[in-house]
Amino acid sequence: MQMHFTDLSRFCLAPISPFAEESCSTKGALVFPQSIVTAGHVTNGKNGSCETGTETVSDFPVDLSPPFVTAFQTVGKSLDYDRNTGTGDASFTTYVGGKCNGAEFDSTGATIISTGNTHFVASDNGKRIEGGVTVLTDPTKGIGDFSLSFVELKQ
Q1: Which of 155, 91, 154 is nearest to 120 (CA)?
Q2: CB 135 within 8 A of CB 119
Q3: 39 vs 146: CA distance, rounded Å
Q4: pLDDT tens, position by position, 127-140
Q5: Domain boundaries, the chain
Q6: How far apart are CA 4 and CA 148, in angstroms?
Q7: pLDDT band per the 50, 70, 90 thresholds, residue 34
Q8: Which positions ≥6 away from 25 have C-beta within 8 Å?
């Protein structure tokens, strides 16, 4: 399946140099709005899924600074699914490094960059899945609010 994300989020940094990422709940944290576009390929299996993708992150509104582009792998696992309504929930962990081997993930050299949950709706006999991220966090808790939706199209 091909997957596409569109995201608006806020990223928080310490107010003094070297401006390290920090929790958005820290008093005085600097908040930077971001626009993120992601495209990737997902392989689903019995025990979950593995996606290899690329994302482009730009500050928002877009200006003269260059975007940050990174490759990633996301490992997903279904939490629940109702065949009658086509709706469900899943959890995910996103890594820099590692490698997808079909739906399995080889974590050699991988570092976790985010975790979360999604809610999704399957249609067209499972050929189309749309959804949104309901929980998103990173190890530093530097992600503030977000609006992240996705579409998967089976090819």
Answers
A1: 91
A2: no
A3: 18
A4: 999 999 999 998 88
A5: 2-153
A6: 10
A7: confident
A8: 141
Residue with tokens 């495209």: 39
What is the rounded distance in angstroms from the CA atom of residue 116 to the CA atom of residue 42?
17
Structure tokens at 108: 């050699």
The class (CATH top level) of 2-153 is mainly beta
Tokens of 12: 């928080």
43: Cα within 13 Å, side-chain hemisphere: 11
- Tell me how far apart the alpha carbons of residues 120 and 125 are, in angstroms, rounded to a whole number: 14
pTM (2 d.p.): 0.84
Q: Do 101 and 133 meet the contact criterion of CB atoms below 8 Å apart? A: no
CA distance between the termini of the chain: 6
- Helix, strand, coil percentages, rounded to 5, for the chain: 0, 70, 30
> Could you give phi then psi for residue 154, rounded to 5 degrees?
-75, 135
